[in-house]
Amino acid sequence: MATQHSRSAARFMMAPAVILLLGWMLVPLTMTLYFSFKSYLPLRGGDLGWTGFDNYVRFVTSSAFWPSVITTLVIVGGVLVITVCLGILLAMLLDQPMWGQGIVRILVIAPFFVMPTVSALVWKNMFMDPTNGLLSHLWRFFGAEPVAWLSEVPTTSIVMIVSWQWLPFATLILLTAIQSLDSEQLEAAEMDGAPHLSRFFYIILPHLARAITIVVLIQTIFLLSIFAEIFVTTGGAFGTRTLTYLIYQRVLESQNVGLGSAGGVYAIILANIVAIFLMRIVGKNMDA
């Protein structure tokens, strides 16, 4: 059992890391709150004084605010559905004995280690280019007219690109969960004559509930701030402007730091609302 002295020593050794972490988070947050109440235009007069809640009102009443929130939620929801469904399928396939199983698993997980900017460029130029992209050649092979993905179905294109990046993460977590499943349950169900679908819905899927909620929680936190893929592919055009990209436009393109900071506060509020909602779901599954 830890003594009072050892606990004090542990706190003392952890203090520098905790202070550094708090400073890393609190300093930018404090600066964001500070600038959100000011009219600060670096290239158009600099600091023009306090504006109160005017930046918040202007940002939320902007015609681009709610469409950007909806686009953000649509992209997040689409990516979650694809990664969870395909992740379960891939995890079940990778759990089966096969030749070169280790190499196959490495290849499946590899896209997760590719930089978002690089993967977006690869998809934009190698796959979705309407003239020389692989998907265009595939369309022509079947006698169909090539699709200009990033202009005709831009939101779907972004969802595909981001899903390709996050599918390995979901697959890895779900594969770990499947491997922890007691094989005797499946063997008993098989001996009792239970079909494959019944075994999946009544044994495998309930066992994966916790892993799925963890995947959804972690991915949602990161996907709410999606930016690089949109910046590289559509530049926020064709209805793909998310809340994060709208903040970028207000700060860098419009050079309105105060308005962008107010948008950053709204993004923090949205992320916390979603995180609290998901944490309640995770908590219920953990208690189950």
UniProtKB/TrEMBL annotation:
<feature type="transmembrane region" description="Helical">
    <location>
        <begin position="12"/>
        <end position="37"/>
    </location>
</feature>
<keyword id="KW-0813">Transport</keyword>
<keyword id="KW-0812">Transmembrane</keyword>
<dbReference type="InterPro" id="IPR051393">
    <property type="entry name" value="ABC_transporter_permease"/>
</dbReference>
<protein>
    <submittedName>
        <fullName>Sorbitol ABC transporter membrane protein /mannitol ABC transporter membrane protein</fullName>
    </submittedName>
</protein>
<feature type="domain" description="ABC transmembrane type-1">
    <location>
        <begin position="69"/>
        <end position="278"/>
    </location>
</feature>
<feature type="transmembrane region" description="Helical">
    <location>
        <begin position="103"/>
        <end position="123"/>
    </location>
</feature>
<feature type="transmembrane region" description="Helical">
    <location>
        <begin position="158"/>
        <end position="179"/>
    </location>
</feature>
<keyword id="KW-1003">Cell membrane</keyword>
<keyword id="KW-0472">Membrane</keyword>
<feature type="transmembrane region" description="Helical">
    <location>
        <begin position="230"/>
        <end position="248"/>
    </location>
</feature>
<comment type="similarity">
    <text>Belongs to the binding-protein-dependent transport system permease family.</text>
</comment>
<dbReference type="GO" id="GO:0005886">
    <property type="term" value="C:plasma membrane"/>
</dbReference>
<keyword id="KW-1133">Transmembrane helix</keyword>
<dbReference type="GO" id="GO:0055085">
    <property type="term" value="P:transmembrane transport"/>
</dbReference>
<dbReference type="InterPro" id="IPR035906">
    <property type="entry name" value="MetI-like_sf"/>
</dbReference>
<dbReference type="Pfam" id="PF00528">
    <property type="entry name" value="BPD_transp_1"/>
</dbReference>
<feature type="transmembrane region" description="Helical">
    <location>
        <begin position="260"/>
        <end position="282"/>
    </location>
</feature>
<dbReference type="InterPro" id="IPR000515">
    <property type="entry name" value="MetI-like"/>
</dbReference>
<feature type="transmembrane region" description="Helical">
    <location>
        <begin position="64"/>
        <end position="91"/>
    </location>
</feature>
<feature type="transmembrane region" description="Helical">
    <location>
        <begin position="200"/>
        <end position="224"/>
    </location>
</feature>
